[in-house]
Amino acid sequence: MPKHHNYSKALHHNIFRIISEAADELSVDAYVIGGFVRDHILERGDPTDIDIVAVGSGIQLAKKVADKLPKKTPVKVFKNFGTAMLKADDKEIEFVGARKESYRQHSRKPIVEDGTLQDDQNRRDFTINALALKLNSDGFGELLDPFNGYEDLKKKIIRTPLDPDLTYSDDPLRMYRAIRFATQLNFIIEEESLKSISRNKERIRIISKERIVDELNKILLSDKPSKGFALLYKTGLLEKILPELTALQGIDEVEGQTHKDNFWHTLEVVDNISENTDDLWLRWAALLHDIGKAPTKKFHKKIGWTFHGHEFVGAKMVFKLFKRLRLPLNEKMKFVQKMVLLSSRPIAIVDDNVTDSAVRRLIFDAGDNIEELMTLCEADITTKNPKRYRKYHNNFQVVREKIQEVEERDHVRNFQPPVSGEEIMETFNIKPSREVGLIKDAIKEAILEGDIPNEYQPARDFMLKKGEDLGLKVQNQT
Q1: Closest of 75, 19, 78, 80 to residue 52, by C-alpha
Q2: Helix and strand tally (H, E) in the chain?
Q3: Helix pair angle (262-274, 225-235), 10° resolution
Q4: Ranges of H-type helices in 14-132
Q5: Average pLDDT score over the chain
Q6: How far is CA 416 from CA 181, 389, 464, in A?
Q7: For residue 410, what are the contacts with CB-CB under 8 A and spacing of at least 6?
Q8: How far apart are the C-alpha atoms of 358 and 364, rounded to whole Å?
Q9: Which is more confidently placed, 370 or 7?
Q10: Which residues are CB-neighbours of 287 under 8 A, at least 6 positions away?
C-alpha cells in the first residue's frame, strides 16, 4: 500500500460528498472504483464516468443520492443487472451492488450473487481497475488496493487480479481490453497474462462482433495503434477477427526476388496517419488499404512480384469485412472503399508528362475526399531512407500543386455536367432512355478529357452534335 493512501483530494467534486452522506444514512459502505481512480492516479484528467460500488443495494443508494441533489434528477434503473445510473453536472454515475460472479462455459453472462467489496474487486478485469476509494465519512478517500494495482500503475503493467486463465476464460472480451489498455496507456501486459491470451484465444467466439469492434476502434483511435495490432497478431487474436490483415504477413522469395512484408508496412502506415488525423474511418482505410495484395500477389520472371488490381479487389473486400464485423454499411463504409480504391492513384500523376485529364479524373473521382486521400498517400511512405523519404514527400507536394491548379481552372470537383438530363429530353423530345445516359456520360467524358471546357454553351453544342450522331432530331424551338 502506498504511504499517501488517502485520496480525498481526488474526491473534490460535490457529488462525492452527497454520495458519502447518502451511504452513511443508509448504513451502506460505498466506494468509487475502477477507471476514475486509475485515471486520477495516472493524472489523465478528470474522468466523467464514475462507477460506485455499494456493499448492499446500488439502486437504493442511487435513489437516495438523487433525492439529495439540488435539481430533480431522474434515476435509470436496470433491475435485471442490479444497477442504476444518474447524471449530475457533467458526470455520469453508475451504482452497483457489490457482487461475486460465476460463469458458464458458453456465455460471458455471469451468475451474480451479492458479495463483499473484496468479491467485487476479485471480479474486475485488471489490478489497475480494481482500485477503490472509500466514500463513507469514516475513512473518506482511503485507497483499498488488495492486488497491488497502485504498484502496477507505477510500473506500467497490465495484470489480472486472479489467475489470468480464469479471468480471460470467464469473459474473453477482457483479452481485447488488456491489449486496448496496453495500447492506450502504453503499458506492458505481464508475461503470464500475455501467454494466457494466446491459450484462451478460441474463447473469443462467444463474444459478439459489436463488442470486439468497439475495442478495435479504441485501439485504432489510440496514439500508436501499431502496438495494439502487433499484440493482437502475436497472441493470435487478430487472425480470429481480421484474417484479411494477417494474410499480408510474411515475405515470399522466388529466384532471389522478394517483396516487402505488407502487414508490418500497414501498421506503419496506420501509425503515420494517426499523427495527422483522428478520423476513425480514415484510420480504417489506412488499416485496410493493402488487403487486396494477398489475393492478387503473383510472381513474373521478367518483372518480379506484382499486385495488379489490388486496390479494386481490396475495395470489394471492404464490404465483406464490414458486413462480417457488423460495422456500418453506410457512407462510412463507402468512404473506406473509396479510399482503398483510389489509394494508388495520386502517385500516378507525379510524372512531368502526366496530362491534365488524369488530374481532372482524380479530382472528379475523389470529390470532397481529395484531402483525406492525399493524407493516406503521404502516410503510405514508410521508407527509412531519408533521401527517398524526402523525394516521395516532394512528389506529393507536386501532386497537390497540380490538383490545386487544375481545380481552380476547371472546377471539376463534384461537378454535374452543365446540361441536365431534363434539357436533353426536352431538346430531342425523348423520354428517359439509354440515349439520355449516353449523352450525359459523353459530356462528362469530354469535360474530363479537356475536349470542351466545363461551361454551359460548349456543353450544349457538344450535346447537339452527340444527339445527331445517335440519330436524334432537335425539336423546333421557338
Answers
A1: 19
A2: 24, 15
A3: 150
A4: 14-26, 35-41, 58-68, 117-122
A5: 90
A6: 48, 38, 18
A7: 356, 360, 447, 450, 453, 454
A8: 10
A9: 370
A10: 220, 225, 229, 245, 266, 270
Q: At the fourth CATH level, which superfamily is domain 8-155?
A: Beta Polymerase, domain 2 (3.30.460.10)
Q: Is the dihedral of CA 423, 427, 433, 436 positive or negative?
A: negative
DSSP 8-class letter at 120: H
Is residue 381 within 8 A of residue 289, CB to CB? The reply is: no
Under 8 Å between Cβ of 32 and 135: yes
* C-beta of residue 470 within 8 angstroms of C-beta of residue 435: yes
Q: How far is CA 70 from the centre of its chain?
A: 39
pLDDT at 174: 96
Partner residues linked to 30 by β-bridges: 54
| Residue 32: CB atoms within 10 Å | 25
d(C-alpha 244, C-alpha 246), whole Å? 6
In the chain, what percentage of residues exceed pLDDT 70? 94
Looking at 75-89, 133-147, 218-232, 456-470, which range is the least confident one?
75-89
What pLDDT sits at residue 348?
79
Judge contact between 207 and 173, C-beta under 8 A.
Answer: yes
CA atoms in the 13 A half-sphere facing the CB of 150: 14
Instruction: Record the cell numbers describing residue 104, joined without a space.
Output: 458458464
So where are the chain's domains? Answer: 8-155, 421-469
Say if CB 34 and CB 51 are below 8 A apart. yes
Which cell numbers in the block locate residue 32? Answer: 468509487
∠ CA 47-86-122, nearest 5°, is 65
User: What distance in Å separates the CA atoms of residue 123 and residue 107, rounded to the nearest whole number?
Assistant: 16
> Partners of 84 in the beta sheet?
77, 95
User: What's the grid cell of residue 178?
Assistant: 488488456
Query: In terms of Cα–Cα distance, which of 146, 129, 132, 149 is closest to 54?
Result: 132
Q: Which amino acid makes up residue 57?
A: S
Strand order of the sheet with strand 143-144? Answer: 76-78, 83-88, 91-97, 49-55, 29-33, 132-134, 143-144
Report which of residues 233 and 356 the model is more confident about: 233
